[in-house]
Design brief:
By secondary structure, the protein is mainly β. The chain has three helices and 33 strands.
Length: about 375
């Protein structure tokens, strides 16, 4: 089934269409000169105190951290501190990389939940830059990079509620956003991944606000045609998943059924040539809001959150620091050195041989944002 779109959007993507026919041979564009952004002087900020900065967490907040993994131990690896984000942020949900640079888009920060932030990190000089802001501020925006463009899809304009269908493409070469065909159905906290010249948008949460119901929707965007099409739905509708591609398969791992009270360890792999899903070994630590990054033939899952909501209060709160990796060939998991600073809703992506994890929530829920930026390497 195809969704009809305004063809004028295709004209806005003329360069993308040209790249669409020669994706494999195209040279990635170069990032234009951007304004450097100084690292945040404090690691944390509180959302409901007008973004008040703080250099520490309260003892009860520190106690939420969980790092022990049930998976067999693999190579430990090591974490190193990198330049802090320019300001504490969370609920970007995910991040993406293009041409060796990390893009972190939208989220909570400075007392609001609908920020247009767009920061780019260059590991060559360990520095952040301020890039053209997202045209409409949102949190839990799904992002993916393809052929010189970064795609920002959907999100929420309320605090993890009120999904939107806005979709944009950022041209890395000229530091400019442009609208593309909107999502067929509004949603936030979905997983986005590039595969075979297209962007797959999977899972997420939609209306009504009172339920913030998880969905299993699977829609694919073709940049050359500015067109969305349907694919087979994700088994077990869920949001805040880990989503990554490896060896022409898309893996959707973990996530939640409506809220972090109902985290899951489900793991499914999508086979595009057959338009079908198959189960795989479950995530050792059931969680949601975690990062998922493909590296050296494995899928690395880090961070996440859990808790119980009773009477409007979060109890049994957990912020995960586990780093667990999956071997697609052996269909098995192992554990590595945990994150020094456990967080959820992080911006995670691979730059060279390091997995960078920037920002995120330092406590369960959206109360505390983080500017912390740490990088993991197996060597």
């Amino acid at each position: 089934m195809m969704f009809h779109v305004n063809r004028r959007r295709a004209m806005l993507l003329g360069a993308a269409a040209a790249l669409g026919g020669q994706r494999a041979a195209a040279q990635p564009p170069t990032m234009p000169a951007l304004q450097p952004a100084s690292p945040s002087p404090e690691p944390f900020a509180r959302l409901r105190q007008d973004g008040a900065m703080t250099g520490h967490l309260m003892p009860g907040e520190e106690a939420q951290r969980v790092t022990e993994s049930p998976a067999p131990a693999g190579p430990s690896g090591r974490w190193a501190t990198r330049a802090s984000l320019p300001l504490p942020r969370s609920e970007m949900a995910w991040a993406t990389a293009w041409e060796g640079r990390l893009h972190v888009i939208g989220g909570y920060g400075e007392g609001r939940v609908d920020r247009t932030y767009h920061h780019i990190y260059d590991p060559a000089d360990d520095r952040w830059y301020a890039a053209s802001p997202l045209p409409r501020g949102a949190n839990h925006v799904a992002v993916a990079a393809l052929a010189g463009r970064v795609y920002a899809l959907g999100g929420f304009v309320g605090q993890n509620t009120n999904p939107i269908g806005d979709a944009y493409a950022y041209d890395v070469a000229v530091d400019r956003w442009m609208p593309i065909a909107p999502l067929p159905r509004p949603r936030g906290a979905a997983g986005a991944v590039a595969l075979d010249g297209r962007i797959h948008l999977i899972g997420g949460a939609s209306a009504p606000k009172e339920e913030r119901a998880s969905v299993g929707w699977h829609e694919v965007y073709d940049p050359g045609a500015d067109l969305w099409t349907l694919r087979k739905a994700l088994p077990g509708a869920r949001d805040h998943v880990g989503c990554a591609a490896w060896d022409r398969r898309i893996h959707v791992i973990g996530g939640r059924f409506n809220t972090f009270e109902y985290n899951t360890d489900l793991h499914h792999a999508y086979f595009p040539e057959r338009d079908t899903w198959e189960p795989r070994a479950p995530l050792p630590t059931a969680r949601s809001g975690h990062g998922l990054v493909a590296h050296r033939g494995r899928l690395f899952a880090m961070g996440g959150e859990a808790g119980i909501v009773a009477g409007g209060q979060i109890t049994q709160a957990k912020v995960f620091g586990q780093m667990e990796s999956y071997d697609p060939l052996a269909d098995s998991w192992q554990s590595h050195a945990p994150m020094p600073t456990p967080r959820h809703a992080v911006g995670a992506a691979l730059l060279g041989e390091r997995i960078h994890v920037a920002g995120g929530g330092a406590v369960t829920g959206g109360a505390v944002q983080s500017a912390v930026h740490e990088a993991f390497t197996l060597d």
